[in-house]
Amino acid sequence: MARKKNPAFSKMLKKFHQGARIFAEAYIRAVKNGAAVAEEEVLAIAKDREQPVEFMAKKLFSAIMLGVLHAAEQMIQFGIAMIEDSKHKNKS
Fold first, then answer.
1. pLDDT tens per residue across span 31-65
2. Is the residue at 10 inside a domain?
3. Residue 64, in any domain of the structure
4. What are phi and psi of 5, to 5 degrees?
5. What is the pTM of this model?
6. Domain that holds residue 30
7. Distance between CA 31 and CA 73 in Å, rounded?
């Protein structure tokens, strides 16, 4: 017995898939940008090798946190833009 496709469910599933793809692309972009920010800091830390290991580890941790914060800020901005876009679409 063949199942009939529910057009409303298919449409909803397609929109969900599209939204997930858009979110994943934004996430990947944010992580790459955050890694680039952290990379700059890590390279600066690596230049000064005369520091104690504990000091370098603290700086490395701070550099990674800076990259993570940069990525998080971008994802928050993406979320806000998606909400605003959704509000405008619902008004139409």
1. 999 999 999 999 988 888 888 989 999 999 999 99
2. no
3. yes
4. -80, 135
5. 0.76
6. 26-91
7. 11
